[in-house]
Batch of 2 targets.
Target 1
Amino acid sequence: MDKKYDALKLENQLCFPLYAAAREVVKRYHPYLDELDITYTQYITMMVMWEEKEITVKALGEKLFLDSGTMTPVLKSLEAKGYVTRKRSTTDERSVSVFLTDSGEALKEKAVDIPAKVAGCVGLDGEEALQLYRLLYKVLNTEK
Amino acid sequence: MDKKYDALKLENQLCFPLYAAAREVVKRYHPYLDELDITYTQYITMMVMWEEKEITVKALGEKLFLDSGTMTPVLKSLEAKGYVTRKRSTTDERSVSVFLTDSGEALKEKAVDIPAKVAGCVGLDGEEALQLYRLLYKVLNTEK
DNA sequence: CTCAATTTAATTGAGTTCAACTAATTATAG
DNA sequence: CTATAATTAGTTGAACTCAATTAAATTGAG
C-alpha cells in the first residue's frame, strides 16, 4: 500500500530500458565494425557521408544529434584513416566541410552486409521493429 | 532502383534512433539531477540501492547491464558523497557488498519527484509508453 | 589434498559524450 | 560604417563505457 516511492523503482522507468537497450544493441555491432577497424560513432558518421558526399560539421552533428565536442575527434580519426577530408569553407570561414574520399566510398562495399548481419540480433519481428522505430522517432522529434 | 545500399541509410536503421533517443532522454534528467549533485548513472545506481539496501557489485552490475569497469568509479563517487559504503564480503572475499547509508536513504526524499517531472518530456501517451517499454524489454531480454 | 579453472573486482587505455568556454567569422541594428 | 549579437568549430575537463588485463579468492577434478 506504500506506493509513495514506486515511481523510483527501476522496473517502473521508461528511460532505463531505453538507455540499457541502446548500449546492448550498439555492442552487437562491435564484432562487425572491428573488421572494418571503425567504432559505432564512426560508422554512423560514415553512413551520413555515404549519402551526402559533402556536408558541414554542423549539419552532420544535427543529423546525428551530436555536438562539435563529439564530432571533431570522430572526424579527425576518420580523416586519419583516410575516409574523409576536412576543409574550412571559403564562403563562410566559420564552417568546416567534410568530404568523402575514394577510400571512404570504397569502405561502403565492406560495410554493406553489416545491417543484415545485425538485424537478427534485435529479437523483434518486422511489425514490432516498425512499431519501435516509430515510437523512437516520436520521442526524438518531440524532444526539444 | 539501385537499392543495394539502402540498408546503409541512416533513416533505415533501428539502432540509430535507439541510440539517439537514449541520449536525448538521459539529457532531460540533467537539470533535476544537478540539484541533487548526481549523474544519471549514479541515479540509477541509487534506484537499485533504495530497493535493495545491500547488494554485491556483481548483482548491481547485472541489474544495470554495466560491468565493474563502470560500476567501480560510480560506487567510489557515491561513497565519497556518503550515500553508500562498500565492504568486502567476509564469506567470499572476491565479492564486495554495497550498503545504503542513512544519508543515501534520505536522498530518496529529494528524488521522489523526479520521475513525474521527467515523464512529460518523453512526448508519448500512456499507451505508447507502455508499448515502448514492452518492446525495449523484449530487445533487452533477447540479447545474450 | 593439490593444482588448474573459474569467479570477482579493480585497473588500464581508448573512445565517447556533453557542458562550458574560447576564438574567429558573419550578420545585423542603429 | 560600427558596435553588438549570433554562429560555428574547436578545446577542455569530468564522467561514462567497455574490452582486455590483473590479482586475489574460491571451486572442483583427479
Target 2
Amino acid sequence: MNTQRAAVEILREKCVEHGLKLTPQRIAIYEAICHTTDHPSADKIFKKIKGKFPSMSFDTVNRTLLTFSAIGLLKVVEGHGDPKRFDPNLKQHHHFRCIRCNTIIDVYSRYYDSVKIPQDIQSRFTVLGKRVVLEGICKQCRKKS
Amino acid sequence: MNTQRAAVEILREKCVEHGLKLTPQRIAIYEAICHTTDHPSADKIFKKIKGKFPSMSFDTVNRTLLTFSAIGLLKVVEGHGDPKRFDPNLKQHHHFRCIRCNTIIDVYSRYYDSVKIPQDIQSRFTVLGKRVVLEGICKQCRKKS
DNA sequence: TTATTATATAGGATTAATTCTTAATTGCAA
DNA sequence: TTGCAATTAAGAATTAATCCTATATAATAA
C-alpha cells in the first residue's frame, strides 16, 4: 500500500535525522499507529501488534511511542488523567472529546486554524502550538440517552 | 476570609442540589483547591491538607475531587497522561502548557472566549465547552536555555 | 561480506497511580 | 434524639508506567 511505504520512509528519515536505528519493531509500531484515527493508548497499540509480532513487549511499545513523541513523529494528545494517548496526525487540527465515552475525535476547521495568538500572550510565552479543544456529547452517546 | 465563606456556601449549595452530605473533609478539600491556581493533582492537595487534617486518607481526597468533578464544582484539566489535575476555576478561560516543565497556566482572553462553534460542528456534536489550548515554553524555562 | 560496536529489545521487577473493599463513623432527616 | 444511608480511613488490589539487565541486532567501516 502506498500510505504504508510512505510511513516507513517518513520513519526512516526521522531515524536517520536523530541517529536512531530502523528496527522492525519501530516500523511495526509506527505503521500500526499511522492506521489509527482514534488516538490509541500504548496498550491498545500493543494489543493490536501482538497478533503479528507475538514477541514484542509492552515496554518496547510504550518506550517507542515516547521516543516517537520526542523526535516529533507523533504527539501525546491532551487527555484527562487516563493513560497517555498518541496521535500520529501532525497536520493542524482540533479535538472534540466526548465526556461520556471519552472518545477524542479530530476536528478540521479553517476557522479554528486561523485563530491568532494575541500579542500579549506572545510576549509571555514562546507559543509552539495551539488547538481548539471542544467537549460535549458525541452522536452515539446522544442516541443512547 | 470572605472568599473562604463564599467557597463553603458554593459547596453547600451544590451538595444540597445533589443530595450529598456536607462533611468537614469535603469542606477542607474544596477550600484547599479553591486557593490554588496551579491545577494541582490529588496528591498535591492531599499533602497540602495533611498538616491540618492528619487523619485524612489519600483515597478520600481523590474520591472527593472526582465527586466534585462529577457535580460540576471543578474540572479535570486536559493533561498529557500524567496524574489527573484539577481546576476549580469555572470561568471561561484558556490554558497554556509548558512542554518543558509541564506547568499549566491560565490564559484569559476575550478574543479566545469569542471563538464560535461552527454550524457543521454543532450538528455533529452537542458541544458543552470549548477552550483554546496553547503549548510552548514558559518564561522561566526560556531563561534557563 | 563480515566484524565491530553502540543501540535496542524482551521480559520480568519495580515503582507509582488509581480504584476497590470493608468496617467504622457521621451528617442529617424524621 | 435516634436511625439510617452516605461517607470515611486504611489497607489491599489493580492498573499504568518505568526501570533493569542480559541478549540480540542495525549500521558502520574494513
